[in-house]
Amino acid sequence: MTTSSITDPRGIANRFGVGSNTPAFARTPILQPGTALPDGVTYLPSGRATSLWGRLPARDDAPVLTIEPGATVVVDTVSHEGLLPDQGQDPTRFFGAHGVQADAVLLDAIEIARDSARDAAQDGPHVVTGPIEIEGALPGDLLRITVVKLEPRVPYGVVSNRHGKGALPGVLPRSGTTVSVFTPVEERDGTLVGTMPLTEGGERHVAFPLAPFLGTMGVAPAEGGRLHSVPPGPHGGNIDIKLLTEGSVLYLPVQVAGALAYVGDPHFAQGDGEVALTALEASLRATLTFDLVPAADAREAFGELTGPLVRTPDYLVPTGLDPDLNVAMRNCVRASLDLLHARWGMDEHLAYAYLSAAADFDISQVVDVVCGVHARIREADFADVQSGPGRQTGASA
User: Fold this and answer.
1) Cα–Cα dist 378/259, whole Å
2) Is pTM, for the whole model, over 0.85?
């Protein structure tokens, strides 16, 4: 199989139509399943046999891939936008209505929309690839997922506000049950940007930078049964933390033997809050490294983690989750206090004061049944803390 690509104006015309209002789509490859892969990589495609649509992998699901700790995997992820019943459940037709020709529509998206089981009344929208078994993972360990690389598979995506959901339920959308804003990706001044018009059908004068990340990264929960794909929890799942870009790390408490990790819900860009219901949803090829932090090392480095923890090049990012945003905020503050004490031995009242003076608490999202808040704690602020019991760098983590 060869890689489709957009390499010249004729290629753009062939794949995306022509006309005075046709966007100047970025000349990026169309990363169809199995194409343009480096030699020797471990590759996990999305599709009917390797993905779930609307549910998360459960403890009793057979892994679709088994790896050793430290392995790097290239995973193709698929956005649900353009696949859903309210969009016709035919991505070729849906994207074709926006000028995208058939060979620029992902084949795995077509397969999932056509063949994958999903109960539209009961299941979530997200396509989730996995589970991946990490050999030797045990409850109490931390799964460390490092985001090595994220590549757009197509130069377009969709932002949707549907079914009266979002931050303004019952107010927006005004025009019906589904609003899906097709959003081309263009290259402007050497940078990939999402583009939108100011008025429906107008020229695309609005441009915002891409910052790709995976909205869903998780492990199988201890309880039985496949969880709905929308609400996040201690298992991770649909946490929608936009800091999980290239170079970041996600720590998840392992709940079942083998961890049974999964990823999905790819985004090209998102604002904190994700207020309209979705971000710029679009398919990504993700290169991820899966490591284990043994339980004892995990406790020494971070204390008793009960939910997701993000690490960027600059910040430690504890999280708080709850259907009530106020409770999610309080949970995040408590998680931050516990982390400061466990990692650096900081007294509670001093940690509380530090958080108030120096840490930012951001709303991850308010649209996924369970709201999310995450804190940003600068590790550089603790660069002078000496190593020792309760005061260590957590190098093994």
Assistant:
1) 29
2) yes
